[in-house]
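Final report, closing paragraph on structural work. Over the funding period we assembled a curated collection of sequence-structure pairs, and we close with a single example.
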Amino acid sequence: MLDGVTISNGLGWSPDGRRMYYVDTPTRRIDVLDYDVDTGAARARRALAEVDDLPGVPDGLAVDAEGCLWVAFYDGEAVHRFSPDGERLASIAVPVARPTSCAFAGGHLERLVITTAAAPDGTGATSTPATWASPGCGSRPAPSSSRAHTPRGAESSTTTCTRSRIERTPTTPPSATTGRWR
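Its predicted structure, as stored:
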């Protein structure tokens, strides 16, 4: 159990399961904890990366097979890739202000899927697909419990990153009766 948390968002594990990564958004940090795979105990919380110099705030995350973290920056128009030591390695600019999380998808887990949210007043979404280079995209992810999410009541879209382009497609929330995505 962690003490002193405010808004928990990103959560993921290193490929060997011995490190747990955690984002508590208002702290503007990406933290790492030692994780015991046998007991489920997380301890020794410490800063992996302090990101005050980047626009936006860290939100959801995914971990790739190389142990690198992909972190969405809400109000930052980007997803940043960090090494297991906290060094920023790459950035993917997205054509919306509010990326919320990311996850790997596709038959070979070669696509980085990025969820986004509009502002409460409905602004912040783009109506046309955008094309963008995507450095470093396509790594297989580590097993993780990180889940894409959208703040309650916010409009959302999904941005899919392939090695050659970023495509935006609208999403429909799960049906209230079936709980399944339409």
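The longest strand covers residues 42-50. The CA atoms of residues 79 and 92 lie 5 Å apart. We thank the funder for supporting this effort.
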